[in-house]
Records
---
Amino acid sequence: MKQERMSAFVKDGRSMLLAYDQGLEHGPSTDFNDKNIDPSFVMELAVKGGFDGIIFQKGVAERFYTGEVPLIVKVNGKSALVKGDPISRQLCSVEYAVSLGAKGIGYTVYLGSEHEAEMFKEFGTIQEEAHDRGLPAIAWVYPRGGAITNDTSKEVVSYAARAALELGADAAKIKYTGDPISFSWAVKAGAGMKVFMSGGPKAPTDEAFLRQVQGAMDAGATGLAVGRNAWQNSNPMQMAAELRRVIHERKVEKLLPTAGPQAP
Ligand code: FBP
């Protein structure tokens, strides 16, 4: 049933989502250039680049969402200005997200933060409200705070996937561990829940990024939710085409040396 809730965003079991909530999360001077500071540019990339979904905060969705690609509204957020263990609180109701056209609800949980209990509780309510409307609840699970020393280790990333499953997420967006074998353990920890690799800061080369995406797909991920590595690229349409080749057309050689997911 959970897989059906994600069906608006998944084709042949695979998906590529375009994330554009970094203006609030990071600040405009950190991530944007003259082109991608315009949300219309990213909306157009989502459409022409063949993305399966677009992720906006409500204010951007209100003004720039055109309805041509399924929408995920990120219903919580925080700025980069406050220091200490992070907390990201709800900013938009599920009902309002639906009124904007959302087919999915996104929420970030900072696993390991001293405030995780508040985010768990809020996500729990949002998940139930989303499910009441037949919509998926998609959890960005980012281990962060003083308790976390390595947020891309196999142990921590698989914990993120398992936490998302147990919190009732239909899909989890988690960081890549760096290799397909360790990432396959995180996919396994999700026990059938859809797992998306999070894009992260722009990789040094396109090839390096595409190899990460290929590794995540080989590990059994459903797909990728990417922002900066797509719309910061000097040729975002070409990057979108390459991502389609890896994710949907399966045109790159297998990187995973063994037949299937490995136990730890
Ligand atoms: P990127 O591909 O740009 O990393 O976007 C994915 C994302 O999860 C965004 O949705 C979010 O704004 C950002 O990463 C959070 O980044 P950070 O890890 O710096 O908090």
---
Amino acid sequence: MRIYKAADYAAMSKLASDVVAAAVIKDPCCALGLATGSTPLGLYASLVARYEAGELDFSRTVFVNLDEYIGVAADDPNSYCSFMQRHFFSAVNARSVNINIPNGMADDTAAECRRYDELLEAHPVDVQVLGIGHDGHIGFNEPGDAFVPGTHAVELDARTISANARFFGAEENVPRRALTMGIGSIMRARTILLLAYGADKAEILARAIRGPVTPHVPASVLQLHADVRVIGDATALAELI
Ligand code: PGA
């Protein structure tokens, strides 16, 4: 695990963007595993700027997103599909045929999970972008008694619901369930970028990186991966370096 301490959010986003840009330049057909949340917004803005400057071509890149709320339609402004369109896909030359996000409206959740796992088998992820939840989640892999390998439906943790209430106006409006890529799929990515910003992430980041590997802190599994780059700002890394 390599830990990069960035001076601030802009520097963190630039470092992350360097890693993703290098992967796309090296192999324009690469598969990028992408995440939603506030943390990667600067990364997406930086990639968009590089695209607009003519440095990057995403026309053959495959995108696989980590997760989606169950019961929120793709065109709902609060869906992760909308989030990704707004902040990244619509601003670059991503082709819709190459954009993959779990379908939270699928009638048959088990079939949708199988479909997503097959897709991940067909498109091994080169660089997986991750944020970290206050409860240690990655994607929507919430704390539990086991690491779940494949795509699955989850009940969101109370801390996740409360953190995401800011997008829905009130906690009661936050969906209770989601589909998420599993821990096994995340761990199969060639390179993982774990981004963390802000003092409120310092404690959980330290537990994930220095504490025991346990499904009760899902991000701790990343200690077992051969190429994880943790990129955080000074406040998120305060308890580590
Ligand atoms: P955030 O979310 O980037 O909005 O802090 C991180 C996460 O829940 O994975």
---
Amino acid sequence: MQNYSVDVNMQPLSILDLLAMKQANEKITCLTAYDASFSRLIDQAGIDVMLVGDSLGMVIQGHSTTIPVTIDEMVYHTQAVVKARKRAFIIADLPFLSYPTIDTALKNAAKLMQSAEAQMVKLEGAHTEIIKNLVDFAVPVCAHLGLLPQSINQLGQYKVQGKDVKEAERITEEAIKVEQAGASLLVLECVPADLASAISKQLTIPVIGIGAGVSCDGQVLVLYDMLGITIGTRPRFSKDFMQVAADIPSAIEQFHQQVKQKQFPSAEHCY
Ligand code: KIV
């Protein structure tokens, strides 16, 4: 098995490398990043993917949701992250209401890919027509299903999704549809571990879980949660890696190793 985590080739990883990891049963590691300093540390620790998440609205800007984040702010933070990265694959979020039509989705994806050099954009929900059109114009897409933080005002609260059979079937159907629409990756947030495991096995594309159990093809955490500096209560699915590390680089390396060795997440972090 090729070990991507010690690959010293300084070309950034590509979408094909991530697919090869799934096929080789090597877990994909992903952390959110919002600036150049952390981008450098995360990259040096060998993390495979950095997600410039719209969670920056909460952890950087101090908002209570991700809703206020703008596309220009996403471009600004993505530019900073890309500047300091050598190896990690970079995904940038399309923020709230930046992809309501095919035209706006294309225009905003162009900003993330041309001005900021993201390698892939992520969008929430099973918007298959939007995904198809982005993919037709060579924009790689990561879909995001399960708990959708941009829908918080419809949901009313952040909670586990897909607990009953009907909801589980809906999420499974959506996962199949986004893959068929051309998505190259799927983030599954806050769903029961059994459901995430079944979806990960059913799909060809890599499934990156957050609060979705150890059987996903990879794991993502919000950087500030895993560094133990969550504002308020840390989500149950996350873990403070600073408790087992002497400094920030070691905490990031611990996350990387524990995901690769399938030690994180453990039962206490799952639903
Ligand atoms: O914005 C973000 O950080 C995310 C992760 C929670 C997956 O979308």
---
Amino acid sequence: MEKIKRLTIKELLRSAESMVNTRVDVKGWVRSRRGNKYVQFVALNDGSTIKNLQIVFDLAKFSEDDLKAVTTGSSIHVQGMLVASQGKGQTVEVQAEEFELYGTAPVESYPLQKKGHTLEFLREKAHLRPRTNTFGAVLRIRHALAYAIHKFFNDKGFYYFHTPLITASDCEGAGAQFQVTTLPLNELPRTEDGKIDYSQDFFGKMANLTVSGQLEGELGATALGLIYTFGPTFRAENSNTPRHLSEFWMIEPEMAFYEIEDNMDLAEEFIKYCIGYALENCRDDIEFLAEHFDKELIDRLNFVLHNDFVRLPYSEGVKILEESGKKFEFPVYWGVDLASEHERFLVEEHFKRPVILTDYPKEIKAFYMKMNDDGKTVRAMDVLFPKIGEIIGGSQREENLEKLEGRINELGLAGMDWYVDTRRFGTVPHSGFGLGFERLVLFVTGMQNIRDVIPFPRYPNACEY
Ligand code: ATP
Ligand code: MN
């Protein structure tokens, strides 16, 4: 074949006008082939965009036999003229002049034959599902959101701060941890009193995968001022819900000199920026998902983008729930850790917009949150979203040494000296929050299940690939 610069389908469609009637070079996977005995049409996709490029094979030039192996899932390299298309659904198409087959995908064995496989079926073929329109769209949006997050914080002067994935601290209390060990599990070394002898383990002590980078993030913020983390997080909770993964990605900004109001302002601005970025840069993919899965998706995204979030103390939220007369599966009373049905009632039925709930009872929140003057509530702030429930959890942190140590002792936490040093030396008011990346992707894509917005989901009894 001639030496011509290969263009991705995205590039080609972008500059189609100036390229019409020139010879082009494209490569990709066949989505479908149809036609009659005079002409065959191949829908080619290369992952760069949701849009397929139509390749026209004139059977005066190619034999049926030439095209026999050009089946759904096979990969080809084509050169031909880019021409204006007469057909519906595309503005340009390629009149094939030459092609080569890279790899076949036999009809009998390639699992993704027809359109409209269920998401459950695709979850079982997660190694191939990125090749479907749906997952292509989700994964491109996921990428755009990750980029938007870095851009947002970078433009605001935040520093990307890397916190460890393997940690020896189990103080966050955010969830059960996965243990990391090289000890022989069938022959554990024991101390004299029969306990497992972790001094013989790899790190000389017990170690786990992190459930949150926040505590280390605070070390960064009290030095660099404004930091954020963006990395994997692991929780060994047995929660088989459509909103929980065992391995997920979290973004945790931490800001010196921010009080809770600054924290709320940042959270709202941040999440709106991400949604706006996706709407602007992922239009085709969002429209595809809206059409196929969620007709109200674009309206919902615009609504969140253009309305202020409600800000409400937990106590008032509980009052609204109690007085709603609604039958909830889980009871509501002051002190209860709100369930997703309660959060969604406030957001979807009562206020009909995102809600930031603040000032939670200290018993249901982590030890590091700043105590209010009432001695009962802490300066927590959870951002609650339609269809998702909690998307962000955050707080102003307790900067007072005595109060923080008091909480640590009350709860019997140990090994926190390094953390408490931030309050011993040059303590400052500071705040931060954690956004579950997949919950954001879930919201922006309109998908129903968090297992469908990460390439290779991990959840109880599922650790493939
Ligand atoms: P939930 O009550 O929904 O389990 P949480 O209170 O445990 O959430 P945090 O510990 O505050 O959540 O974590 C911060 C954010 O991380 C949450 O707001 C959520 O967006 C996300 N998140 C928490 N647990 C998971 C999980 N298992 N899978 C995916 N995202 C999660
Ligand atoms: Mn949880």
